[in-house]
């Protein structure tokens, strides 16, 4: 039987089971029922208070779900298990708001409960010239300045105006990022090697040498489609995002070439992204957090200077301390969206879910998650 994934719905009423009702959906069904109104229990306080029968139904569902959780707990008490699907309590927490604003972004950061301190890197994509979809400096300014962060990026491996350090800094200026914070191109001087533990394709990952200057990392990703990876979220930002230009070739080729990123096997590339991401995650345990902004949901990534326009509505901002859970939740929301067909097709046509699956397999995190809606 598939594992159950738990969603938390905003307050139904004040009382002993407040603040939330707890419905389930099965892993892999790709539906967030409350969010898209295909079905829901107690979507708002008013709904529950004004309809006693529906309130009682919510209470009934809550009791059933609580019983399932208690049964799961009793079955696993005293046992040690690394399999996140064995218990609902092992699910990662993903926070969500539909408020795509500086205030909404700050609420996600604060909800994560992990204070960014020391020399803080905020990893974004500066966006290829001609692409209008990268994260707006106005959106991220409050968070970046609140943590005293430095915006960090790396040079590309495919040419264009971000393949050269000098031109890349100019793009950062042109796109407004240097006006809100210091900007560092991590591989402007050289790269360094990080060992990959348990990789199928990679034994090392090559990242920009200035990566070592930072004590804490906020991986702030624009979630969208991608021409090769199917989608880009936290895992891609951790891998291709931190990789030097040579490191990008190494990942794309599945560990075969640092100079030619093209022509490698697709699945090798997808799995190599997960393996490269693992080095950043493990090197910064307790000093890293992940946020996906789900707006401007084009099928093409911010590295494309002529992206296709989005054909679906913005969704919101999600955050987690688990990048696997975060990307899985983001993908599930796209698959559940009534207008998400184009992005779903892009993800499926590139076998994009393999990166998430491989990331879980090699121990980066869990695909099982609890969504907590901060708008309730």
Quick recap:
The chain is α/β, with parallel strands linked by helices and 376 residues long. The protein has two domains: 4-90, no CATH class; 97-373, LarA, N-terminal domain (Rossmann fold, 3-Layer(aba) Sandwich).
Describe this structure in words.
With 376 residues, this protein is α/β, with parallel strands linked by helices. The protein has 2 domains: 4-90, no CATH class; 97-373, 3-Layer(aba) Sandwich (Rossmann fold), CATH 3.40.50.11440. 35% of the residues lie in helices and 17% in strands. The protein has a 10-stranded mixed beta sheet, with helices on both faces. The chain has a two-stranded antiparallel ribbon with strand order 7-8. Strands 10-11 form a two-stranded antiparallel ribbon. The longest helix has 25 residues, at 52-76. Mean pLDDT is 83; it is low at 1-59 and 66-89.
Radius of gyration, in angstroms, nearest whole number: 21 Å
Strand order of the largest sheet: 2-1-14-3-13-12-9-4-5-6
Strands, count: 14
Number of helices: 12
């Amino acid at each position: 039987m598939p594992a159950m994934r738990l969603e938390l719905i905003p307050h139904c009423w004040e009382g002993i089971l407040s603040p939330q009702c707890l419905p389930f959906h099965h892993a892999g069904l790709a539906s967030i029922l409350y969010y898209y109104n295909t079905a829901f229990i107690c979507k708002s306080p008013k709904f529950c208070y004004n309809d006693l029968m529906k309130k009682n139904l919510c209470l009934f569902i809550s009791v059933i779900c609580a019983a399932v959780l208690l049964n799961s707990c009793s079955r696993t008490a005293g046992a040690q298990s690394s399999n996140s699907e064995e218990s609902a309590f092992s699910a990662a927490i993903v926070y969500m708001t539909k408020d795509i604003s500086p205030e909404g972004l700050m609420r996600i950061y604060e909800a994560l409960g992990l204070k960014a301190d020391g020399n803080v890197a905020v990893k974004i994509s500066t966006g290829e010239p001609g692409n209008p979809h990268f994260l707006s400096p106005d959106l991220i300014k409050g968070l970046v300045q609140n943590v005293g962060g430095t915006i960090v990026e790396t040079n590309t491996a495919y040419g264009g105006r971000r393949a050269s350090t000098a031109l890349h800094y100019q793009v950062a200026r042109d796109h407004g990022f240097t006006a809100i914070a210091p900007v560092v191109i991590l591989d402007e001087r050289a790269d360094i090697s990080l060992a990959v533990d348990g990789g199928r394709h990679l034994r090392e990952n090559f990242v920009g040498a200035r990566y070592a200057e930072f004590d804490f990392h906020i991986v702030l990703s624009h979630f969208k489609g991608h021409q090769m990876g199917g989608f880009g979220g936290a895992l891609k930002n951790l891998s291709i995002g931190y990789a030097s230009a040579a490191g990008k070739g190494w990942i794309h080729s599945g560990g075969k070439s640092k100079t030619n990123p093209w022509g490698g096997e697709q699945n090798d590339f997808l799995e190599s992204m997960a393996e490269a991401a693992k080095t950043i995650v493990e090197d910064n345990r307790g000093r890293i957090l992940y946020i996906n902004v789900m707006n401007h949901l084009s099928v093409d990534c911010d590295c494309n200077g002529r992206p296709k326009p989005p054909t679906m509505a913005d969704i919101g901002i999600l955050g987690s301390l688990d990048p696997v859970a975060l990307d899985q939740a983001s993908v599930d929301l796209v698959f559940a969206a009534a207008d998400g067909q184009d992005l779903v097709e892009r993800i499926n046509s590139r076998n994009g879910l393999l990166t998430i699956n491989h990331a879980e397999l090699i121990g980066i995190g869990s695909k099982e998650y609890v969504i907590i809606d901060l708008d309730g």
